[in-house]
Design brief:
With 215 residues, the chain is α+β, with helices and mostly antiparallel strands. The chain has a domain of 122 residues: Threonyl-tRNA Synthetase, Chain A, domain 2 (2-Layer Sandwich), CATH 3.30.980.40. 41% of the residues lie in helices and 14% in strands. The protein contains seven helices and five strands. It has a five-stranded antiparallel beta sheet. Keywords: Membrane, Transmembrane, Transmembrane helix.
């Protein structure tokens, strides 16, 4: 596939602006999942220590069962694996923005607002910065797929809000009968426009469809 000229948004005679790490709040936002996991483990460990020191084994059994029972089931393990890949994909998307021109001259990268498992991989809701558009993400679709260790990557732009886009990471074929627990159910498919001509665009339900009349 020929490379999109939008891949090079800066003149060739200029140095690529260095990507910055962002402020403290931005860095905390990027590792929010890891912080929540660490905080949860700390609370869990403190609760176990307090229960064992006081000789109360019922809270100990309840807390350990809350973790061991889901881990022993197939659905629980699938949930953990799916959300693990969500964390990995979010960091890989941030890294590809830092390593390419998908950041502003001030070094700011787009914000990954939310990422969720899907029937084929993951879907990330992204808010772009000034100077970056969904078309640039589409131009780097191959690089995004390679960075996320995926089969392919699809980009969808919001019909009304051009600064919002969805990056769909495709890792496997869609399983029949499985529904997506994330963005499809929350935002619906008809609010997003595919940027690839070979992908079927969801119809706009606000437009009246005129059916041909039988002769």
């Amino acid at each position: 596939m020929p490379r999109n000229p939008r891949n090079q948004i800066y003149p060739a005679n200029e140095d690529l602006p260095a990507a910055g790490g962002g402020g403290a709040l931005v860095r905390l936002w990027r590792i929010r999942t890891e912080l929540l996991v660490v905080a949860g483990l700390a609370v869990f460990a403190l609760a176990l220590l307090g229960a064992t020191r006081e000789g109360r084994w019922v809270p100990f059994i309840l807390l350990t069962s809350a973790i061991s029972v889901p881990a022993a089931t197939r659905s629980g393990r699938n949930w953990v694996v799916a959300h693990f890949w969500c964390v990995v994909t979010r960091h890989r998307l941030q890294r590809i923005c830092l390593e390419t021109t998908m950041h502003t001259r001030a070094g700011r990268i787009p914000l990954v607002l939310w990422i969720t498992p899907s029937t084929t991989g993951e879907k990330a809701l992204i808010m772009t910065r000034a100077g970056i558009s969904a078309e640039e993400f589409e131009a780097y679709a191959e690089e995004i797929a390679a960075a996320c260790w995926a089969r392919s990557a699809n980009v969808y732009r919001h019909r009304r809000r051009a600064h919002l886009l969805i990056v769909e990471i495709v890792r496997r074929d869609e399983t029949p009968g499985v529904t997506s627990p994330g963005l499809d159910r929350l935002y619906g498919r008809h609010a997003w426009v595919s940027l690839r001509p070979d992908l079927e665009e969801p119809p706009d339900l606000r437009t009246e469809v005129v059916l041909p009349r039988a002769a």
